[in-house]
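We read letters as residues; the fold follows as tokens. Both lines appear below.
***
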Amino acid sequence: MTRKPSSQGIAKRISLPPLDPQRYAPFAERPVRAKARVLDHDVDIQAHHHAWGQLVFSISGAVRVNTAHATYLVPPARAVWIAPGIVHAVTAVERADLRTVYLHQAPSDGPAWLDCRVLEVTPLLRELVMQLAISPDAAQEPRREACIASLVLDELRRANSLRLGVDLPQDKRLRRLCEAMLVEPLRHADLDGWAAEVGASARTVSRLFRDELGSSYAQWRSQVLLARALTLAARKMPMSLIAHELGYASASAFTAMVTRTVGMPPSKFFAEA
């Protein structure tokens, strides 16, 4: 069911600091700011945090947003909300045309805005942010910018929340294993191979998955593959090719995994997610 791991290893990546965050900092008079940035497929943005909330989404391509407790894959038409003060890093899964929105205050009160989560980006929200990011340094038309900002906040209040995050452990060995699997999920065919890579027994790793993440290795791996599948589906890739790319011998085997994991077939899951 799983393809043989690649013998080429993982390509060296480029680590960059975030663009001067104070340049785009939101404030009372300009409560919603936006900027554009293109990331090549081998670029990482170093871990950092802000005193304000942030929304990250991709016009094209895909990125992964990593925090201490979870990782979120962001294909087009999806965004990650990052609450103020949360340390996060960004990894380009493929060349990505990003838009980042900084908010002086969360769109509304409530516990949902105190953590990270994935949100749906409607066509209206996408176009509003595109307009805001055209001239981020100076409000050439303050009244127009204020109207756009108000609409952005209203769209965010209405945005559907999607369960597309993948939990990450605190144990160093398991964390190393999970992060390696996120980068190259097919490098090992089974748990024994992954366990050997981090110098532990399969039994120990299985216990760590249960204790740290409340799931089995197979369940966690399925979530990783689903996240990767969403990115491929966003490219309009046929189901048979997605199944092959993720190491499944047939589309039916992939369909069975998705249905078992989320309770619905891939076609419905991709349409809703």
